[in-house]
Fold each of these.
Amino acid sequence: AGVAELAAASAGDMRQAIDLALNRAKVFRVDPLSESIAVVTRGLECNRKENPNLLGGVMEQSLRLASAAMAADRLEDSLNAAETATDAAKAVTVAARPPKKAIKDPSLVEFALTTTKQSESLKRTIRRRIKARDEMIQAKKKLDSAPDDPAANAVVGGYECFVLGEWERGLPRLVKSAAKEFTGIAADEIRISAAEEPAAKDL
């Protein structure tokens, strides 16, 4: 992260910090998501002890980035962002307790409690996704040596269809799978797509 976005993050202006990080990513052709997560992490580090009243933006943007990373199947990045949200929320709730009572805005404490629930739920989902992804990776290795293996096709095809939304890749695997509730449906979908494709070209 650059000096300008780190300064904005230190001041608690996370939206400006992320906008600057995205501009930097375009100019220097670096990963915008990684830059943005680095910025919110910096915002937490700077304000956790010095001024927890500025952590509202860290919580908000960390949750948003965690969701964006999960949608992109970047699960470790998603987990890191969700952890930042949890840590920021904890810093706020701790600072609000006696004898500190350092939080001036009661709504910030309420937001911290809500963020804790959301981030913990999100982390559980991410960890399940990581487990499913790792199982899919192992199943893919199995398909390298046994491409018609029903169980491996079920795992890989299910992940591609229902997690990634890559139906064209996943449906042929589900046809080969041991999951009988999916094989017929998958085969029907492939036949429908094959029938529709020439008609679409005619248009």
Amino acid sequence: GRGDRCGVGWRQAGKTQLIATDLPLPSLDPLVGRGYRSPGLHVTTIIDALERLAGHPEPPHWDHAALVGFLAEEAWKQYMRRSRPGELITPGELEVDGVLFTPDDLLLTPGGSVVEYKCTWRSSNTLPEDVKWRWLVQIKAYCWALRVYTAELWVIYVRGDGKKPDPVIRGRRLLFSDQELQVNWQMILNGKEYLEGHHENTD
């Protein structure tokens, strides 16, 4: 019909020769802390060393998958902060016993609560124990630094539970004892002493 002919005519008139070239990715340096962390020993640097000593090093993975995960975490932080106005504050960079911290958020409940956001490409049903260990050591260190005993851990599982490819978001409330936090903190200090003794890079 006339409408079809008009449609074809418009499509033909709008045709152009597409010229596409690849664009370089921005620098991935912000993912490894450069640009927004002060020089010194950060708690995640110490955890990296502890993992190496335990024989479970985390391989370098600052690639497209890491960038997507980083952006997902940042977007999730902003969403949570907007959806919970007046409940969350961002402590910024802290230092305790010469160790630097950058907690994601602090929940302003009686007693306070650390809030940490993570994103992983692992299935929620197959998350390795060493990854869970790493997250818990980090969160317990934040709790010690902020003198709180509870935390919220929000995780984006990009691949869901392994049964369906749909992403899954899970939140968990964690409660720690004073002894747990003290033992964890002593381990962090031992790692700090090890790094300082071996003159490893602290930037």
Amino acid sequence: YTIFRTDTCEIKGGVIIYIKSKLNAVVCNELLENNLEDTLWIWLKNQGKADYLLGVVYRKGDSSLEHNTALLQQIEKANQVSKGRVLITGDFNLPNIDWKNYVVNDGENSFAQKFYDKLDDLFMHQHMTEPTRQRGNDTPNCLDLIITSNESNVENIKVQSPLGKADHNVIAWDYLINFDKICERDLYRFDYNKADYQKTVQ
């Protein structure tokens, strides 16, 4: 795997993306301008076809107004530069959005409402509806999101047990895109037309 990561100045923090080495991936420089903490954007290069943009985000629950505004701008730009060929995932810490019933249980000027409205304005789809995080007796919440511009790009979402002592579930899904077939190993074929059959019978 090729590893892309950003680290914060805190003891624990940052985001990471693992890309199979057979795939051609590069950092998306277009989204580095505002240097937004705990976000990472990677181009998945698709030779001869349109490239795809992958983004991962960690948003703290107590993020500042400045950070929240910059995040909305970054999501809009990601959708723009990728021409809608984008997958965004991560922990957005938005427990007040009921994704199953399309309801925001927060104030009209809250970030939760602004985030929900931004995805709606961009015609983007958020796929997660089940709770992804539970700690102790806390109410389970859907904090970890999967966002695309095409609802049919994501299938077979599975919410699995957390890793180690984590309180967030592991999420797995299929991402359906028009991508060049990558051969996992070298294939060797015999050219029987060039065989020396006289030697094989000696």
Amino acid sequence: NASDAASLASDRVRRVAIDGSGAVWAALLDGGLDRIDPATGEVLHVDLGLDAEQLGSLYSLYVDRKGLLWVGGNHGLSAVDTRTLKTVHFTHNPEEAASLTEGSVRAIAQDASGNLWVGTYGGGLSSIEAGRVTATFTAADGLAHDVVLSVLATPDATLWIGTLGGLSRLEQGVLSSFSTEQGLPSDGVLSLLDAGADALWI
């Protein structure tokens, strides 16, 4: 109930993240972002400064090492200060080569060097620094598919990318990919988990 401070704005929760203060953030498929105080149970419906049509659905959340909350969705990418709620938006601009690639943002991760990586629905995988795209990998570069559904950075500086066409690994700038032909049970890789000891759950 969007008008109830003790209720989520929607039951359709796509992603959850926890910030440094312990607050729980929920990205909603209906386009909302909620912050839950675990101590009181109070829910804050966060205004991202975009109307419903501009915002669309939210698909991904990530808290980086500086404490910024990154929010990905149909609108593109947003950086939210979890204390002040100040928000900066990054979107696709066809006239600017260093802008976000086209397609909704479905996955976000930060690698061992602090680089932010964004996976999009149809635009492949991009590295972002100071709001500008510094590198992009697509199927033409060896990515398993341009629809990226999940991204995982492991401590050994390897980036794993789950796509609609299989799993890709980016290691020292080199891409390699795996699909059902190499033994995956499905080419659609929705989620990734680093289990340690060189084990990866898909």
